[in-house]
Amino acid sequence: MSKSSVIHWFRRDLRLSDNLALHAAVKNRVPIIPLFVFDPKILKSERTSPARLELLLNALESLDNALQKLGTNLLIKRGNPLEIIPQLVETYEVEALYFNKDYSPFAIKRDEEIEQLLSIPVYSYDDGLLLPPGSVMTNNGTPYTVYTPFKKKWNTFDKPAISDCDLASEHFVSAEIIEPEDIPTLDDLVFTNTVPIPTANEKYIQQRLEDFLDSHISEYDELRNALPIAPFDEKRVEGSSYLSPYFRLGILSPRQAYWSAREAYQKSESQSAKDSIATWVSELTWREFYMHILYHFPHVDRGNFRSEYDALEWAHDPDGLQAWKDGLTGYPIVDAAMRQLKAIGWMPNRARMVVSSFLTKDLLIHWQEGEKHFMQHLLDGDPAANNGGWQWAAGTGTDAQPYFRIFNPVSQSKKFDTSGDYIRHWLPELADLDKKFIHAPWEMENPPSDYPAPIVDHKAARERTLAAFKAIKGN
Question: What CA–CA distances, in Å, run from 164 to 124, 159, 255, 426?
C-alpha cells in the first residue's frame, strides 16, 4: 500500500459536522482513516463514570453508522495510543496525523509524546473551545484568574465560524481496507451502568439545540435555577438545555451552539429573551474560563488553585461523606439532588451548588471527595468544569472572597423548590409531607421515621467553617 492515507484521531470530537481537524484532513486530499482508541489508563481511572462510558459507546456507534454511509468504518482500537498509532502509521503507510486538542494535563502530555514518537507531520486544532488558551489574556500578557474580567475580554473577540465541509466517500479510506475491532459493549469493558442513557445521535442533538433555542431559551434567565426532574430525552425541560453531556464528548461543538444562539438573539423581539440568550451564552463562557484555568494552572487538576488553602484542616468524616453520597444527610434538598445524580447521572446547576456547598462547608469535607464522586456519576463530567465548580464551592478557587459564601440548605430549598415537588419526586418517603415541613421535616412534632434527622446543625457547621477559613486568612 503506497503512502496514500492520513489518520483523524477522534477523541472529544465525536461528530462529522464542524470538526476542524477532520475537515482540515479532507483538504489534504488524501483518504482519511477515522480512528478511536480506548486507552486502558482512562478506563481504569477512578474518575471514570459507567454512565458516561455507555454514552460514549452509543456516540461511537452513531458515528460509525454515519461513517459507513460514507463507505468507511470507524477504526476502533484498544490499548495505549503511544503504541497503537505508530503501528497504524506503519501498517497503513500513513502520511500525517490529525486531531483536535484536549487541554487536560494528561492529554497535553500524551499528545506531546505522540508527536515526538512519529516521524510524520502531526496537525492539531483548537476545536473544543471558541477561544483557545492563550488567546484571552490580560493587558500584561498573563492569564485571567477571575471570571468577570475574563468574560468581558472574551466578549470583545470575534468568534470563529462554523466549519462547513461536504463529506463524501472519496474523502475516506474504503471500509474494505480498514479492519476495525467491534465497538465494545459495557460488559466487554467490565463496567455496569444503571443510569438511562440519552440519545447520542449527532443530528438529533443538533435538532435538540434548535428546539431549545426556538422554544425555551427565552425563559432561561427566569428558569435557569429551576430544579427539573425530567430525563434527558424529554422534549420539554424547564430551566436547562440538557446539552452538557454532548459538549463533554464533542457531539456538539461550541461554535454550533454559539452561532445558533447568536441567530436566535437577532431574531428575538423582546429584551427579556435577548437577556436570556446572553445568559445562556455566558454558560459557554464559564466552560471556556475553566478550561483556560486548567491549561494555565495545571496544578488545579489535583490541588487547590490558591495554595494558601493547602493548610486548611478538612474534617475526616467517612460517615458524613457516605451519608452525602447516599442522599441520607437529613436535609431534603441535598438528599434529593444526590439521589437524582445516582438515578439519572445528572443534576441541575443550582442543585450542584447546594450539594457541593453542603459537603465542603457544612461537613467541611475536602472538595476533592465531591469532585471525584461527581466524575464517577455525571454524564457531563468534565475535568475542567467539574474542578472549577467544586473549587468555587469550596472557596479554594478563583474567587476573591469565597469563604463567606455558605449556602443555607433550608433557605435554598424554600427558594428554588418552593412547592417541594423536586424533593417529593426523589425522596418518596417524604412524598406526603405538607409544604410547611417538606424543607425541614425535623421541625415536625413527629418527623417521618424512615427519613434521617440532620447529620449536622447548619448554624454550628457554618461557624466551624468560617473559623477554619479565617485561621488560614490570619496566617
Answer: 18, 15, 12, 44
pLDDT in tens, 235-277: 655 678 889 999 999 999 999 999 999 999 999 989 999 999 9
At the top level of CATH, the class of 5-127 is alpha beta
Q: Which of 390, 392, 408, 426 is catalytic?
A: 390
Q: Where does the chain hold its CATH 3.40.50.620 domain(s)? A: 5-127
Q: Determine the CATH number of domain 307-474.
A: 1.10.579.10
For residue 1, name the pLDDT band (cuts at 50, 70, 90): very low
Task: Note if 280 is an active site residue.
Answer: no
Q: Nearest Cα to 394, choosing from 279, 300, 284?
A: 300
The CATH architecture assigned to 202-296 reads Alpha Horseshoe (1.25)
Given 280, 367, 392, 426, the catalytic residue: 367
CA distance linking residue 108 with residue 362, whole number of Å: 36
The ranges of the chain annotated as CATH 1.25.40.80 are 202-296
Residue 475: is its pLDDT beyond 60?
no
Given the residues 95, 210, 283, 429, the one annotated as active site: 283
